[in-house]
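Might I ask for a little of your time on a matter of protein folding? The record follows directly beneath this note:
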Amino acid sequence: MKRPLMLATCPANFGEGGLGQHLARVREDALARGFDVQVCCHGGIDSPLVVGKTWEKRLFRLPPFRHRPDLAVWLRHVVFDRRTASRMGAADEVTAFMGGALETFRRARRLGAGKLVLEMPNSHPENVRELHARARALHPLEPSWMGPLFSRRVCAEMLLADEIRVNSEYTARTAVDRGCDPAKLVRRHLPVHPRFSSLRRVPASDGTRTAVFVGSFTVFKGVPLLVDAFRQVRGEHLRLVLVGGWSSRGMRVFLESARRSDPRIRWLSGDPAPALSSAEIAFHPSWEDGWGYAPAEALAAGVPVVVSDQTGMKEIVRDGLGRILAAGDPAVWNAAVREWGEAA
């Protein structure tokens, strides 16, 4: 008997980063449900539907894209979506990620797809825009990636979708508050790689106490808020380790200046496991996040977390291993970092 076919599309590298891991989960779930799966993405998997993005490197160095990440993100998703739609064949079910689904969904309908599923890693786009505006008002270091073009595109995709998959009750609430039909919403649970549960914790032998942040170094992840709070705490034995990378000149200049004035601040890229193995605490002061692999991985490794209340991260905090603080409130975050730093 012929197995049904699912097309899963996402503008990311399969299995890499938050979106890539999310896409891998979509594929695993579909295989478990008895589907054959075709994957369309930027790479990381052997698939005839891999869509390259070499054109971005040149174009995004030029105005207006160089200074407008909202336009760059919008165009990246539009191009990916149109290339996917032009190459796809008939499928029984199509799953696509927010921002890159509009033309794919329209063509899938024409080809007779039985079900269209929209994956929403973030909260409702208008909620994202509002929170990002608040973040920029506090730290005007870089523009938001969420603009009106992208927001309108996602809203159109939500109307076309038969089902909208959300990673948290937080995301679901923001969608319903903006008029989404709650009957469309289905919760997806994203697992953490088991290697974090078996991570061996090794405290620093010299008495150094380390706090970590894992994620993109952006205003909207709350990085300047955390750095400013840490710089107010005294103690040569304290360290703040940021794991990830920046994508704007404003953030690079901010962090380099912060490190020159406070060499206790460090950053690195790559696997977060080594940093978590010696960390006392993990701070995640994001202004908005649909869920968050980073705090889930920290909790799995036994590292206490402090997360914001405008993210799905708050739903995974367990008693004794975490706190939830108001997003973007400097006084609250300053107090939390100071309390950690001054603890015996």
Observations:
- The domain at 194-339 is CATH 3.40.50.2000 (Rossmann fold).
- The chain has twelve helices and twelve strands.
- Residues 69-87 form the longest helix (19 residues).
